[in-house]
Design a protein that fits this description.
By secondary structure, the protein is of the alpha+beta class. Helices cover about 15% and strands about 45% of the residues. The chain has 4 domains: about 100 residues, Sandwich (Immunoglobulin-like); about 110 residues, no CATH class; about 55 residues, SH3 type barrels (Roll), CATH 2.30.30; about 45 residues. The chain has 5 helices and 23 strands. Strands 4-3-2-8-7-6 form a 6-stranded mixed β-sheet, covered by helices on one side. Strands 10-11-9-13-12 form a 5-stranded mixed β-sheet. A hairpin with a 2-residue loop joins strand 22 and strand 23. The structure holds zinc ion (2 copies).
């Protein structure tokens, strides 16, 4: 019996000759594939994920998923790859083998060129500290380095460690100490934004974000962001001299700061932002609270003893417990 389509050759299956049986089959694929390779470790990036092991296998899976087979109804298909090496080869060759129901086989060869883009991977970036998308610059309102800056850096590290680590760029690249403060370099801009927000939400501070274009990466503009945070250089226990007297800083909050007049013992509340004006003099950077033993007390005052010199003093206020912590400044307790 002749083939029902061409009428020339003998039919071999379902009334078709071998040629006509496979004429409906089409194997299509992209002629080239963009692939990012790390020049340092050879890792490859497929889609959004980096692969460091079984790279050739991962690449095959990628290509296999993009090979389009049509007209294979009633037939089975399998794709096999020629051996290749991700580092050395610029193309990947494969064969799609189509088998008809009666066991006739035709192979369709294909070749995909690899367009390699070199880009350092997050693991290597982390190791060398070279990659960063953002810098958080922490500065004090006094324009010079002080320990309150270190406190904020510890906070930043703790926040970064608690962030969801589902992104490979979520890391601190490096921390740089400068005469005027500390710079924290981060692999991921959105981490920096979250940290900057958390830090500035908690304390009186200002935040200025700047962006600069530093080049192109993987075909896109690559910007770096700087989060300039200015925190108040004062801490609880700072002693400052203002126009209306000398004050101990009792408690700093985002909006308001409580000050204690060292002459009258009276409290004064000021807007925290006004302390950024630096229109006062810092007498002591920080005085420490000390423990005192409560000898007696009522609702209005307490009699306390200094355990260092056994001196007994009376302080105003309502206290609880057998020990209390107080500021001692120029012979007075607060
Ligand atoms: Zn035919
Ligand atoms: Zn790498």
């Amino acid at each position: 019996m002749k083939c029902i389509i061409c009428g020339e050759r003998d039919s071999v299956e379902r009334g078709l000759c071998e040629d006509c049986l496979f004429k409906s089959v089409s194997v299509t694929f992209d002629a080239s594939e963009d692939i990012v390779i790390c020049p340092k470790c050879g890792g490859i990036k497929i889609g959004k994920r980096w692969h460091y092991r079984n790279k050739e296998r991962e690449m095959q899976k990628r290509i296999e998923s993009k090979i389009n087979l049509r007209g294979i109804e009633g037939k089975t298909a399998s794709v096999s790859f020629n051996d290749f090496d991700m580092a050395a080869d610029d193309k990947i060759e494969f064969e799609a083998e189509i088998e008809s129901s009666s066991g006739l086989k035709h192979t369709f060869p294909g070749e995909i060129h690899l367009k390699k883009l070199l880009n350092s991977c997050p693991e290597c970036n982390k190791k060398t500290g070279s990659y960063y998308e953002a810098i958080i610059q922490i500065r004090s309102s006094f324009g010079e380095y002080d320990s309150s800056i270190e406190e904020v850096v510890s906070e930043a590290i703790a926040i970064e460690n608690n962030l969801e680590k589902d992104h490979s760029n979520s890391f601190i690249s490096k921390i740089e100490k400068k005469p005027e403060g500390i710079d924290v370099y981060l692999g991921r801009k959105t981490d920096a934004a979250q940290i900057a927000k958390a830090i500035t939400d908690r304390r009186p501070s200002s935040l200025i974000v700047t962006k600069s274009l530093v080049g192109r990466r993987e075909g896109e503009d690559f910007n770096r962001y700087t989060y300039g945070i200015r925190i108040l250089g004062l801490t609880d226990g700072s002693v400052i001299s203002m126009r209306d007297g000398t004050f101990i800083v009792k408690a700093i909050h985002k909006e308001n700061t409580r000050l204690l007049n060292t002459e009258t013992g009276k409290e004064k509340i000021v807007k925290s932002e006004t302390l950024f004006r630096n229109d006062y003099r810092v007498v002591e950077r920080k005085i420490q609270k000390r423990k005192f033993i409560v000898l007696s007390r009522n609702d209005k005052e307490a009699e306390v003893m200094d355990p260092e010199n056994f001196k007994v003093s009376t302080i105003r206020g309502k206290f609880s417990g057998n020990e209390i912590e107080l500021y001692s400044y120029e012979g007075h307790l607060y």
